[in-house]
Amino acid sequence: MERLEQLPAFRSVSIRRTALPTSDWIDVSTLCFDEAAFTPAHFAEAGMPCPDSIARSVRKRQAEFFFGRLAARRAIERAGVDRAVAQADIGIGASREPLWPRNVVGSISHTAGIAAAVVASSQAYGGIGIDVEQIVSASTRPAVLEMALNGAEVHMLQACPGPMSLDEKVTLVFSAKESLFKAAFGSVRRYFDFSAARLSSIDPDSGRLALTLVEHLNEEFTLGRCCELSFTRLDGGTILTICAFRPRPGSAAVELASRSLHSRLHSA
Question: I want to staple 97 with a disulfide (CB 3.0 to 4.6 A). Which of 93, 199, 260, 266 is the partner?
């Protein structure tokens, strides 16, 4: 594996033990990097392929992709996945989603010099989503509100006690909906809008919140389903949210996991 300290744009790496609403704990791999110090040569130095679509993109996108995939490698290693799987390339799907190795579900996020990734066994989870966001400013808040929250959700945030500012809480709900989308995408297989889920509860003290679906997405994510998420701070200006779900009995996700396990057992 690559030696991180030899990469000019690398700044630090950490593993953050994060609580899930299921009462489980999961490791989140985070990397801090200097976008200005990044060059495309990092890909070769780390032995990481650079997809054509990324090679044609701007330097900022290249740095985010590189360190996001690097964080994902660390997360896969941390999860104790087979070495051959850990070194497998994480491709890009038709909807720009990460293509994870067999028997793995995961998620990648990045913002302002921070990349984060999380992975888990597909036997344990049907999907997992992570999102990191910088706290919105007073000038950007109106655009975020218009895009991601409705009036009732804003009222709930304003009435929520605690030391978090309105900008922090708005960022939190925006990020939570992003995490839900990422966790559900592998099952739903299509884009859905922020309005598909509404804030139903928030507890800043416990680092938990819940989103309720107000649209029927598929047999797994049905109208009225309550999706619990957890959140934490990475630093003073960055929030991390995480969503993970276990497949419902009899769902397509359960059948897929069962077939995957059967195939693995009989090919061993």
Answer: 93
